[in-house]
Amino acid sequence: MPVRVELIDEAIVDLADLAESGNIKLFFKKLLEIEAAGGMAGEPLGRNLVGWRKVTVGNRNWRIVFRVDQEESVATVCVIGDREDEACYIEAQRRARQAEHADAASLAASMMEVLGSRKQRRHAARKREKASERS
């Protein structure tokens, strides 16, 4: 059942940081899969993250941790991170406790913020290059 995907502010920052990897399309593709499949997307998590789910991205290098609300209308993403050292799950536990009260943005707004900030970063880099050429 389709859901609206929302990202908490910290997850948008995660996504913006990972955009530098050049795999931004993979992340957006997985977020769209969550939107289409809702509570059926990914795999359930256990221990301190019961009720939350994970989706793998890339060659199983990254995780998207999310929860679908009881009405099955909204999927809230709390972490998008590297899974290597389990840090994303530790961070997910911290953020999960705060997710109820956290501000969240729609997937479309999140995409615009990430792509906009990427454009701004490229623009700033070009300005620095021109300034160094003049020196």
Identify the notable features of this structure and list them briefly:
135 residues; YaeB-like fold; single chain; alpha+beta; 6-stranded mixed beta sheet
Q: What would you note in describing this structure?
A:
The chain is α+β, with helices and mostly antiparallel strands and 135 residues long. It has one domain: YaeB-like fold (2-Layer Sandwich). Helices cover 49% and strands 23% of the residues. A six-stranded mixed sheet has the order 2-3-4-5-1-6. β3 (53-57) and β4 (62-68) form a beta hairpin. α1 (9-19) crosses α4 (107-134). The radius of gyration is 16 Å and the shape is globular.
CATH second-level architecture: 2-Layer Sandwich
Largest sheet: 6 strands, mixed
Number of helices: 4
Strands of the widest sheet, in order across it, are 2-3-4-5-1-6
* Overall residue-averaged pLDDT value: 82
Chain-wise SSE layout:
Layout: E1 4-8, H1 9-19, H2 24-37, E2 43-44, E3 53-57, E4 62-68, E5 74-82, H3 87-99, E6 104-106, H4 107-134
Parallel strand pairs: 1-5
Antiparallel strand pairs: 1-6, 2-3, 3-4, 4-5
